[in-house]
From TrEMBL:
<dbReference type="InterPro" id="IPR036412">
    <property type="entry name" value="HAD-like_sf"/>
</dbReference>
<dbReference type="InterPro" id="IPR016695">
    <property type="entry name" value="Pur_nucleotidase"/>
</dbReference>
<keyword id="KW-0479">Metal-binding</keyword>
<keyword id="KW-0460">Magnesium</keyword>
<feature type="binding site">
    <location>
        <position position="127"/>
    </location>
    <ligand>
        <name>Mg(2+)</name>
    </ligand>
</feature>
<dbReference type="InterPro" id="IPR008380">
    <property type="entry name" value="HAD-SF_hydro_IG_5-nucl"/>
</dbReference>
<dbReference type="GO" id="GO:0008253">
    <property type="term" value="F:5'-nucleotidase activity"/>
</dbReference>
<feature type="binding site">
    <location>
        <position position="414"/>
    </location>
    <ligand>
        <name>Mg(2+)</name>
    </ligand>
</feature>
<feature type="active site" description="Nucleophile">
    <location>
        <position position="127"/>
    </location>
</feature>
<dbReference type="InterPro" id="IPR023214">
    <property type="entry name" value="HAD_sf"/>
</dbReference>
<comment type="similarity">
    <text>Belongs to the 5'(3')-deoxyribonucleotidase family.</text>
</comment>
<protein>
    <submittedName>
        <fullName>Pinopsin-like</fullName>
    </submittedName>
</protein>
<feature type="active site" description="Proton donor">
    <location>
        <position position="129"/>
    </location>
</feature>
<keyword id="KW-0378">Hydrolase</keyword>
<dbReference type="Pfam" id="PF05761">
    <property type="entry name" value="5_nucleotid"/>
</dbReference>
<feature type="binding site">
    <location>
        <position position="129"/>
    </location>
    <ligand>
        <name>GMP</name>
    </ligand>
</feature>
<dbReference type="GO" id="GO:0046872">
    <property type="term" value="F:metal ion binding"/>
</dbReference>
């Protein structure tokens, strides 16, 4: 088992840096306090805290500013004082970079939103696509090209659309699409649009135009997507939560771009429905399935570690089941490639074409047995037998036939709504989200560029919060320069992840709407099932206690030894992607 953390003693080897690290961390989270100059000390301190704050007055010109005469001091003195605080803060921050840069987040960690022990789990369930099977980028190109051609050949869209190719780095998962306005955007956990991430076609929409259209940047609840992220029942927003939706968003953007470039008048609602139907046809007609089966090595990433996870669970006497929306032939071909021809021996129940999320709510559909040749049988199902294949059905019948209820069941899937939401809210199963994008984002967060930028961004934000009390024109001129610098850094941190939309998990500072749903519907989350190989089946996952806004940050409480090379995981929260 690879080591996921090193002992605290590694950080304690340099006690001076350790003290400064804690002081710096507390400083970044200071919420209130008036800055004063202590004439008996070399330190400038806050009224809330001890004199061990991070900002020094060594660069203040000799003899001059005290707390009593700040209001009457000259503009030049105030400006000099503000810049001296700025420079010392920046120097102290830069001194901490070598320490912080070594505190990498391990990308093979399992992260917990809710406390859960694997010792309590007796039954493991899995989705198939992007859970057991991972696909190469060729699959999204295939889906895009086929759907684009369906629009042209069957919906009479312009031939000029063939000029557009799939762009793998244009969109990210979790975006919202305003069906009536034909706008793609990222929304945070509080329903606010992240300005700068609103796109019409392939071009960004100016912030002033966005604010005018929405009378601000807040999206009211009544026009947000429904519970499953769909645009229905008066909701005009569609949220794209599925990894398969990446080519759909890209195609929508390309068609919008073509119509605007050629001054073609079109109805955005019709465009959305046509693209949705074309993408659906790629799946429903079996076009994608046949293409993958014909060239499995091109489209499926070989899952040796997936096989190892299943073998580990099986050897430890765990029950396993598969519930997928994909057809049996497609799943069978993929699992033969990933696991081997005996893959069905590992699963106690296999259900295909389940029609999730309807499977979790609709009690009317009975199970139907399918032969190895795809023939549907008509006999009533009294037992779900190992080695057999079942189609459709519903969860209530599944629970009755298996008795697999409550928190002894852990189900893994990649779609937060279709795979996980109903299971955790209605049925009490434990849930694990597979987020493949997580590994890439963690690697970016571990880079020196990101650590350096985020550390200084946090320090500068704290400085702005403290110094905003100086309202005179000279001070406000300095503070405005800091605000401009902060905005530039916020844009840089967004672009590090994705030039158009930034990180999957954060807007500039708030969690994204995607993150909010992830934290609500998934007990644990990870980049892939292979992360389970790093833990024994007695392991308990503990969520990190992060301070609420009114709580004083206590560094040891925020430490989690599971994710860091050294256990300063609390810093990971403050520097999570923008």
């Amino acid at each position: 088992m690879p080591t996921l953390s090193l002992p605290l003693s590694n950080l304690l080897r340099n006690k001076e840096r350790f003290k400064r690290l804690i002081a710096h961390f507390k400083y970044l989270h200071t919420r209130r306090g008036i800055w004063t100059v202590n004439t008996s000390s070399q330190w400038i301190s806050s009224s809330r805290g001890p004199k061990s704050a991070l900002v020094s007055r060594r660069q203040v010109p000799v003899g001059q500013l005290t707390a009593g005469d700040m209001c009457t001091s000259s503009s030049e003195d105030k400006t000099s004082w503000l810049w001296s605080v700025y420079n010392e803060t920046k120097q102290q921050t830069q001194d901490l970079i070598p320490v912080i840069s070594n505190n990498f987040v391990n990308p093979d960690t399992i992260f917990a939103n809710n406390q859960m022990s694997l010792q309590d789990i007796e039954i493991y369930g899995f989705d198939y696509d992007y859970t057991l099977a991972f696909y190469s980028s060729h699959l999204h190109t295939l889906i895009f090209n086929i759907a684009r051609d369906i629009l042209i050949d069957e919906h009479r869209y312009p031939e000029g659309l063939k000029e557009y190719d799939y762009m793998p780095n244009f969109v990210i998962r979790g975006l919202h699409y305003d069906v009536q306005k034909a706008l793609l955007m990222k929304i945070d956990a509080f329903h606010y649009i992240q300005l700068g991430t609103v796109y019409r076609g392939l071009n960004p929409v100016p912030e002033k135009e966005v604010i005018a259209m929405y009378e601000g940047s807040h999206v009211p609840l009544e026009i947000m997507s429904d519970f499953y992220g769909k645009s229905s029942h008066g909701h005009t927003m569609k949220q794209f939560m599925d990894i398969f939706s990446l080519p759909e968003m890209t195609l929508l953007s390309c068609v919008n771009d073509y119509f605007m470039k050629h001054n073609i008048d079109y109805e955005p609602v019709h465009l959305y429905k046509d693209v949705k139907e074309a993408i659906g046809d790629v799946h429903v007609r079996g076009i994608m399935y046949r293409a993958v089966e014909a060239d499995i090595e091109k489209y499926i990433c070989y899952g040796e570690q997936t096989h190892a996870v299943l073998q580990k669970l099986s050897k430890n006497g765990k029950k396993m089941f598969l519930i997928t929306n994909s057809p049996f032939d497609f799943v069978d071909r993929g699992m033969n490639y990933i696991v081997g021809k005996d893959w069905r021996d590992l699963f106690d129940v296999v259900i295909v074409q389940a029609d999730k999320p309807g499977f979790f709510n609709d009690r009317r559909k009975p199970f139907r047995r399918v032969t190895d040749k795809g023939v549907l049988l008509w006999d009533r199902i009294h037992h779900l037998e190992k080695g057999q294949i079942y189609k459709q059905g519903n969860l209530y019948e599944f629970l009755r036939l298996t008795g697999w209820r409550g928190s002894k069941v852990l189900y893994f899937g990649d779609h937060i709504y279709s795979d996980l939401a109903d299971l955790t809210l209605k049925h009490g199963w434990r849930t694990g989200a597979i987020i493949p994008e997580l590994r890439k984002e963690i690697k970016i967060m571990n880079t020196e560029e990101y650590v350096h930028t985020m550390t200084w961004l946090q320090a500068l934000t704290g400085l702005l919060e403290q110094m905003q009390v100086h309202r005179d024109p000279a001070s406000q001129t300095v503070i405005q320069q800091w605000i401009n610098e902060r905005e530039e850094m916020r844009l840089q941190t967004k672009d590090i992840f994705n030039a158009q939309f930034g990180s999957l998990f954060r807007t500039y500072h708030n969690p994204t709407y995607f993150s909010r749903r992830l934290s609500r519907f998934a007990d644990i989350y990870m980049p892939s099932l292979s992360c389970l190989l790093n833990y024994d089946l007695q392991h308990t996952f503990y969520p990190r206690r992060t301070p609420l806004q009114h709580e004083s940050p206590i560094w040891p409480e925020q430490t989690s030894t599971g994710a860091m090379n050294i256990p300063f995981q609390s810093y990971r929260t403050t520097t999570r992607s923008k």
